[in-house]
Amino acid sequence: MLRLNKANIAHSARYLSSTPRVCFQYRNSILDKYKQETEQIDAPSQLAKESSLPIIEQDLKIKPRQARMKMPLLSDHKVESPGYELSGFAKTFGELFVKIFRIDMDITRSGSVAGSLYFAECKKQGLFYPNEPMSETAKFYYETLNLPKSFSQQVQITLLHYWILSVRMRALPFKYAREYQQKLVDRIFKDLELRMSNELGINSNRIIEGNLKDYHTQLLGSVLSYDEALVSDDITFASALWRNVFNGNPNVDIRHVEALLAYVRSQLYVLNKMTDREFGFGRFKFIPPNEVVKPISKSQEEQMRQKVKEEFEKMTLPSQKSVLSVDE
């Protein structure tokens, strides 16, 4: 199991995000060529735009089916509504229940964090609907990287972001890592089933089940290839991204693959600087591709670590209990 280094990050990943251009030093990665302090690297979206190669549209053989309606990002359940809060009585009763029965809140919390917050983070990165403005992240994939605007492409982007989160989840204590990963996978596939039925208008359960099996196979394959790449080198990583996200397109612009690789490395760097407890409480958000992750110093790490400890020391309610580390 991969174990991430000890460190943390303050309230959100924004601390590591800055202007579209900063000094960047990495070893054993695609960013090796920027070793000198005077060298700089662009944000992933800017990096991709530097290519001057002509765009060759990928032949998908068939015309992708587009959404005929729009489902909510999450569900219609009130619990997932923005700003939802329990009533005063429900809060008091819930805290008492947790205290009396000694509920393991880290397992309980995995549902709301991985199955809701992190699910939404994964889903919205490549989400788009016809005749609606795209988010900046969606523009990165469909306009800058020129990926096909299809449902299957959205799935591949979602699975990539699932894997990025799963790397950090697997660094949690085993029983919690398993819960977080399972909650996220279950929610992703339940959402895919609903979207195929409601948004794409597929009425055949047999077709939906067949597609879900295909997506599950793709998930297993992509996880294995990304895991291999993570412990290998950036050539292997670029190859895995090309096969999965770029659909093995022989006409792909290698500058685009490089940009996506820089984006993934940036997310992993931020996750590497988060403590178990911060991540377990849902504090991570993906850095947009038009921003650059700025490496931090040891003294900055120590400052953030202290702020995190002070914050969680104030969280004393039974429902806020956690055994997840604030040091790693």
Please characterize this protein's 3D structure.
- This protein has helices at residues 44-49, 88-101, 105-125, 136-144, 151-169, 174-198, 205-230, 234-244, 254-272, 276-280, 298-313; strands at 21-23, 40-42.
- It has 328 residues and is mainly α.
- The protein has one domain (13-53, 86-320).
- Strands 1-2 form a two-stranded antiparallel ribbon.
- Helix 5 (151-169) runs parallel beside helix 9 and helix 8 crosses helix 9 (254-272).
- The longest helix has 26 residues, at 205-230.
- The two termini are 15 Å apart.
- The model is unreliable at 1-38 (pLDDT under 50).
- Residues 143-286 form the Ubiquinol-cytochrome c chaperone domain.
- Belongs to the CBP3 family.
- It comes from Spathaspora passalidarum (strain NRRL Y-27907 / 11-Y1).
In short:
Helix content is 52%, strand content 2%. It is built from eleven helices and two strands, in the order E-E-H-H-H-H-H-H-H-H-H-H-H. The protein has helices at 44-49, 88-101, 105-125, 136-144, 151-169, 174-198, 205-230, 234-244, 254-272, 276-280, 298-313; strands at 21-23, 40-42.
